[in-house]
Design brief:
The radius of gyration is 24 Å and the shape is rod-shaped. Helix content is 0%, strand content 76%. The model has no long low-confidence stretch (mean pLDDT 92). It contains no helices and eight strands. By secondary structure, it is mainly β.
Length: 164
């Protein structure tokens, strides 16, 4: 087990068309980015080989519940409004919006559960002191946000450390 502070970023692009009434419609094109921060408590089982020369190889597997501590977002986009009468379409204008560093904590779920798979090598420096190098894959089980879209958090990571 352990205690990790993880930083995760996400980008979304979207287009939404809506009809206000029979003749007026809007088209919104937006781009959003999210910066999420979690405290993660990985619960894993680590399997190691016997020492081969100065090396030991390992595989680590388990789950990692993560608790949201911060969520910020940036949203940019445009909304174009048009009016259609018969076959004639008239442009009623375009609005742009740009919001930066918005608190989106209420839109992000408090708990994110994921599977952790890691593999790597330990190199014996001397006695009980080992240098550790590993590659970690974290695959989110649960959606990070409420809503119709499926939003999962997956990432690869590199772990480097010293065991003593």
């Amino acid at each position: 087990t352990g205690l990790d502070v993880t930083y995760r970023n996400a980008k979304l692009k979207g287009e939404e068309n809506s009809i206000i009434n029979d003749s007026i419609s809007t088209k919104t094109i937006s781009k959003a980015s999210m910066k999420l921060q979690y405290i993660e408590i990985p619960l894993t089982l680590k399997l190691k080989t016997n020492e081969i020369g100065y090396f030991r190889y390992f595989l680590q597997i388990g789950v990692a519940p993560a608790f949201k501590i911060r969520a910020r977002g940036d949203v940019k986009g445009t909304t174009a409004t048009t009016k259609t009468v018969g076959t004639t379409t008239t442009d009623l204008g375009t609005e742009t919006f740009d919001e930066e560093n918005v608190d989106i904590k209420d839109d992000i779920n408090n708990l994110n559960v994921s599977m952790v798979v890691s593999g790597g090598v330990e190199y014996n420096l001397s006695g009980n002191t080992n240098l550790v190098l590993g590659l970690v894959f974290n695959n989110g089980f649960s959606d990070i946000a409420d809503g119709d879209l499926k939003q999962k958090s997956n990432f690869f990571g590199l772990s480097i450390g010293v065991l003593f």
